[in-house]
Amino acid sequence: MSTTYDLVVIGAGSGGVRAARMAASFGAKVAIVEEYRVGGTCVIRGCVPKKLYVYASRFHDQFDVAASFGWSVEASFDWRTLVDNKEKEITRLESAYVANLEKPGVEIIRDRAVVTGPNSVRLVGQGTELTTRYILVATGGRPNKPDIAGAELAITSNEAFDLPALPHSILIAGGGYIAVEFATIFAGLGVHTTLIYRGDCIMRGFDEDLRRGLEAGLIERGVKLIYQTTIDSLARDGSDVAVTFSDGVTAPYGAVMFAIGRSPNTEGLGLDQVGVKLHSDGAVAVDAWSQSSVPSIYAVGDVTGRAALTPVAIREGWYFAETVFNNNKMAVDHSQIPTAVFADPELGVIGLTEAEAATHGDIDVYLAKFRPMMNTLSTRTERMILKLITEKDGGKILGCHILGPGAAEMIQLVAIPMGMGATKADFDRAMALHPSAAEELVTFKAPSYTYRNCEKVGG
Ligand code: FAD
Predict the structure, then answer these.
(1) What is the pLDDT of residue 1?
(2) Which stretches in the chain have pLDDT values below 50?
(3) Residue 47 Cα, ligand 1 centroid: separation in angstroms?
(4) CATH 3.30.390.30 fits 345-457, yes or no
(5) Where in the sequence numbering do the catalytic residues fall?
(6) Closest by alpha carbon to 5, among 38, 36, 35, 27?
(7) Model pTM greater than 0.70?
(8) Which of 3.40.50.300, 3.40.50.1000, 1.10.3720.10, 3.50.50.60 would CATH assign to domain 4-142+263-325?
């Protein structure tokens, strides 16, 4: 093993892997240090296993409506099969990541790294010191747990994918996307699921109609919601965990999971000692080119506290490599990022919410709420929601918010015209595709209501 490099990347997740591969393809001598598994959060314990488990949980809904189409289905579920098959798939992906790093000549070092200077990194296990022109910090984040008695009895998303068995019941603390996605997963797999959130509605920051629609969808799927309450302490109660809530009530659950946010992985990394400026939450402060306050040290992905999403980390890693190793200065545009929540019902959003847009000027809101066709033969009453927010009188599209089947796939495609600055007239020109839910987006006639001088008109 050499000890002198052009680039040492710390963390082989979404951002680090892309940066390492690209830098090596531009001719740099690159090492990537990983303390756990190549692929990082997304592949090993994030997006990929999460989506697989969401697919598993959605059979429940399918079986539910199957009878209305004449099918009778007798179903049972085996958790072990899902866990084992998931493991096979992420191991396959991990191998593919390793091969993709090795192809352009990236050296993979399995160890924990700490930064010891602007141009030096120490491998904790081996005790070796590496010298390098540049360091890229791509260490991602980790799930938070509250500082309460018994917190060690609870799981986080890190453990949820590999539980030895499904619990009979689960209490999930949190109101963000990881909390509601896991509520969907566990409820769909037949676990009595309760979501506890300290606010008054899940998915803070999302469009109000979608928040309420998702809330109704979770309730319809049997998820119990406890709002404006927190967990005071946890204690062992036989094979259960006894939870004492802030209102004094104590109740047992088969498992307790915290999904209350994530913190950047900078603890013990040595960055502050070498003069790298950190934000108050520990995230690395970087400029538009991902450069930290120490010129030879860059950071990309979740550790920078920008948008904690895989495609964003990948893009930041790619642009870092272009900027530093290909003489092609590129800054990531973080302004229009499509986002999905793979709950049931699913959410896909891009751009401003109605509340945000209403403060920016005069806007028109086009809103459609209807039963998805798949449910029309059954007694299910759940509504799909599609909302377009535009500048007034057919101007630029400012936001698009979708709740229901296929929302994520639709919003990815809406991101293309929105990135091109599309107007309502551009959407209107598109021929509808029938019968589809997405055709609503190109067949809106008059606005459902408007905002003029920040005041709602009609609706
Ligand atoms: P990571 O992928 O976290 O990689 C960091 C790597 O650094 C890790 O492998 C870690 O072991 C390693 N590391 C840390 N410290 C050291 C050290 N000192 N030495 C050596 N190695 C170290 N995003 C989406 O876009 N869509 C989704 O659907 C989605 N779902 C998610 C579901 C869950 C449950 C979670 C937790 C996250 C999800 N995300 C999703 C977010 C996504 O996983 C992250 O945004 C993405 O992985 C960030 O990539 P990264 O390169 O910044 O860090």
Answers:
(1) 66
(2) none
(3) 9
(4) yes
(5) 434
(6) 27
(7) yes
(8) 3.50.50.60
